[in-house]
Amino acid sequence: MTERARTLADPALPSICAGVGLAEGEFIREVLDRVGDKWSVLIIATLHDGPRRYTELHDAVPSISQRMLTRTLMLLRRDGLVTRTAFAEVPPRVEYALTPLGLDLHSISAALVLWARGHHEVIRGHRALFDASLDKPSMAK
């Protein structure tokens, strides 16, 4: 875990939402939606191993359509998380790579993956209990 992630996880810090205005809150939500969607997470994880060509990315990310890969790469580039480098070669070659900002995001998402892997049995147990409680008739009338 990075020093920044440890700092953000410190329970002594005041609520991270304290003092966040409406416009800033909307922007934060928009960024979290972008970086937290399933395609962005998979693309960022794939690019962590180094630059990839479009076809390599398409082959490495299961079930993604070409349209969705193109759109997600464009949005990641827009946010400064991914670069696109075109090489003046025949045939033309284009590679995508993580920026320093994208690498920083990868370390944070990797910590979330480790957390999920370490707690999946507990979470599945809670889900089973919750789902079972929905099957029982309600005591309240």
Automatic annotation (TrEMBL):
<dbReference type="GO" id="GO:0003677">
    <property type="term" value="F:DNA binding"/>
</dbReference>
<dbReference type="InterPro" id="IPR002577">
    <property type="entry name" value="HTH_HxlR"/>
</dbReference>
<feature type="domain" description="HTH hxlR-type">
    <location>
        <begin position="17"/>
        <end position="124"/>
    </location>
</feature>
<keyword id="KW-0804">Transcription</keyword>
<keyword id="KW-0805">Transcription regulation</keyword>
<protein>
    <submittedName>
        <fullName>Putative HTH-type transcriptional regulator YybR</fullName>
    </submittedName>
</protein>
<dbReference type="InterPro" id="IPR036390">
    <property type="entry name" value="WH_DNA-bd_sf"/>
</dbReference>
<dbReference type="Pfam" id="PF01638">
    <property type="entry name" value="HxlR"/>
</dbReference>
<dbReference type="InterPro" id="IPR036388">
    <property type="entry name" value="WH-like_DNA-bd_sf"/>
</dbReference>
<keyword id="KW-0238">DNA-binding</keyword>
